[in-house]
Amino acid sequence: MNLGSKDKSIKKNSQLSSFRLALSGILSAIKKERNLKIHLIISMIVLALGCYYQVSAVEWLFLSIAVGFVIAMELMNTALERVVDLVTKEYHPLAKQAKDIAAGAVFIAAILSLVIGFIIFFPKIFPNWLF
Question: What is the mean pLDDT of residues 1-28?
């Protein structure tokens, strides 16, 4: 029996398991988190607008990074909230601070995404304005 091929098989199954667990976490968050659902709906609108206005490859790059950043931050916020809730059910100012700071990070990502969307879509939607 070749132990090298067994090691590769174990490593491959471990990687596949990691992907499954990550996907499971994402799906769980989508089912339970209202804000994540809102971000996903907005992402679909951005995708539709990008297709409709035929944005350039560079514009797609910026839109993809913006959308991915907001969704990733929302997932991290959700994970942090779960950990804080696991550690303490009682009110604690540090627990509140941790949750508020994580929510602030999502807010900053969302604002940045709005700015990127504005820069890309405003001149396309209103071509006769200042741009």
Answer: 75
Whether 28 and 61 map to the same domain: the answer is no
Let me know: does 33 contact 78? Beta carbons within 8 Å: yes
- 60-74 residue pLDDT tens: 999 999 999 999 999
Q: How is residue 77 written in tokens? A: 């916020």
C-beta of residue 29 within 8 angstroms of C-beta of residue 36: yes
Residues 95-101: contacts with CB under 8 Å, at least 24 apart: none
Is 93 inside a domain boundary? yes
**From the candidates 33, 59, 74, 90, which is the catalytic residue?**
74
For 45-56, what is each residue's pLDDT tens digit? 999 999 999 999
59 classed as catalytic: no
